[in-house]
Specification:
Layout (H helix, E strand, L loop, with lengths): L2 H16 L13 E8 L8 E6 L6 E5 L18 E7 L6 E5 L5 E2 L6
Parallel strand pairs: 1-6
Antiparallel strand pairs: 1-2, 1-4, 2-3, 4-5
């Protein structure tokens, strides 16, 4: 799947998910979605990974992020405040940004078919 196809799939999924997702974002950037991406370690320039919990155990799958879609200037890693997790904005073409992992946003879920 090339980058254009990936973008189309993401856009179609998020458009469908938006109708089910309620989020108070009065800042004019649209709905914000969490991804499963986060820093491997809370240190500057550490690797970003996908952390996906298993559905049947307390294990997780961790894999380095190969495809990225960062918004210009991101990640800006406010590490002093704990910005370790990746989210994306609806009105920033679903490009990625780093933020506090404790922020409450909607989630993007992977579904195996």
């Amino acid at each position: 799947m090339n980058d254009v196809e990936k973008s189309s799939v993401i856009t179609a999924f998020l458009a469908a998910a938006t109708s089910e997702c309620v989020n108070d974002v009065g800042n004019g950037i649209g709905i914000i979605y969490w991804t499963a991406g986060q820093r491997l370690e809370p240190i500057p320039d550490s690797t970003y990974v996908w952390r996906v919990p298993a559905t049947d155990t307390y294990d997780e799958t961790v894999s380095e992020i190969a495809f990225t879609h960062w918004f210009t200037g991101e990640p800006n890693a406010g590490l002093a405040t704990g910005w370790y997790c990746i989210h994306m904005y609806e009105l920033k073409s679903y490009e990625w940004d780093d933020n506090l992992c404790s922020a409450q946003y909607c989630a993007v879920c992977e579904v195996n078919k």
